[in-house]
Design a protein that fits this description.
12 helices; zinc ion transmembrane transporter activity; 0% strand; transmembrane; ion transport; transport; transmembrane helix
């Protein structure tokens, strides 16, 4: 029980419900404004470049910066906080929390959940565009080299026919146009990017609610004061990360505005919810049940964000993006943008 001993004198001096409530009200407006600024910047930047020669490159760099921010958010902010919540002495002294690393397990479940949603939604999108799969179409399975073998067999058959007839001026049909296939692939990629943006917002909203509820339930003004400034910068960078993905998804104005608004109000709403929970139950941010809820939701959010950042953002752009592969300097610039995004968000872990 020695691990649960705290500096009671300092805790009592910092515990001031009236001052804490005043700081929370200020933080609601500050965090809302900084969230709006963070998520709007990449969206407006993409619209500014829209129709210009550098549009695709600008959106790609914004998205790589966003991927770095989201990866850092999951690994440096959300996951350590989840482990801290579930390893707190108020929780770790209980059964079964002391017997098993639940934070890691729920993070794994979050990643598997994101994979399941990804597979189900992608299958639905492909079915919508191409109809039921019957082994044909642009997405049908083709053995490696099968197309080349068929072309060679066709040429040999035509050559034999030409030799038998005494004429060598055989005719080879031109390759069929793949414009319809290319159009379908582009449409599929666009829908996939929209799916990624929506799942990312869900994961980030989990995280934002946890942050807000934790601050709303806290009565420690010494903890809240530095958190207001730190969370303001935190929301700016996290908003830029999500905004970069929304910008590339190409939503209409109404959907883009709605997604930006939901991100901006989630943390302030969490603060209000935390204040209501404290006024009803008397639970503060050090209560064991509160810590368990924070740890489990944080772990789930972390698993979702790790999967989305690595699989649907970084891997797709660095290994499957034709634009990046065709311009050597763009791949270097994209990696730098990824590193800058992850570094910027990681530095904020010193304060929040």
């Amino acid at each position: 029980m020695s691990g649960c001993v705290t500096d009671r004198a300092r805790e009592l001096a910092c515990r001031d419900s009236r001052a804490a409530s005043h700081l929370k009200v200020i933080s609601i407006f500050v965090i809302f404004l900084t969230s709006v600024a963070g998520i709007s910047f990449p969206v407006l930047l993409a619209r500014f470049f829209h129709g210009k020669a550098a549009y695709d490159r600008a959106v790609l760099l914004i998205k790589c910066f966003a991927a770095g921010v989201i990866l850092s958010t999951s690994l440096v902010h959300v996951l350590p906080e989840a482990f801290d919540s579930l390893s707190d002495c108020a929780v770790a002294s209980r059964h079964p929390w002391r017997d098993f690393p639940f934070a890691g397990l729920v993070t794994l479940l979050g990643a598997l959940l994101a994979l399941f949603v990804d597979l189900a939604a992608s299958s639905h999108v492909e079915h919508t565009i191409h109809g039921p799969s019957k082994g044909t179409g642009p997405l049908a399975y083709k053995p490696l080299g099968a197309e080349e073998v068929q072309q060679q067999e066709k040429k040999f058959a035509e050559l034999e026919l030409a030799v038998e007839s005494g004429a060598l001026n055989f005719h080879v049909d031109p390759a069929p146009s793949d414009s319809s296939s290319s159009s379908s692939e582009q449409q599929l990629a666009k829908l996939k990017q929209r799916l990624v943006s929506q799942v990312l917002e869900i994961g980030i909203i989990f995280h934002s609610v946890i942050i807000g509820v934790t601050m709303g339930m806290s009565q420690n003004q010494c903890t809240i004061k530095p958190l207001v400034a730190a969370l303001a910068f935190h929301q700016i960078f996290e908003g830029m990360g999500l905004g970069g993905c929304i910008a590339q998804a190409g939503f209409n104005f109404g959907t883009t505005a709605y997604m930006c608004f939901m991100f901006a109000v989630t943390t302030p709403m969490g603060i209000v919810l935390g204040m209501i929970v404290f006024s009803i139950t008397g639970y503060d941010d050090s209560n064991a049940n509160t810590l368990i809820m924070e740890g489990l939701l944080g772990s789930l959010s972390s698993g979702i964000l790790i999967y989305m950042a690595l699989v649907d953002l970084i891997a797709v752009d660095f290994f499957h993006n034709k634009l990046m592969g065709s311009i050597p300097w763009l791949k270097k610039a994209s990696f730098i943008a990824l590193a800058v995004g992850s570094t910027s968000m990681s530095i904020l872990a010193l304060w929040a």
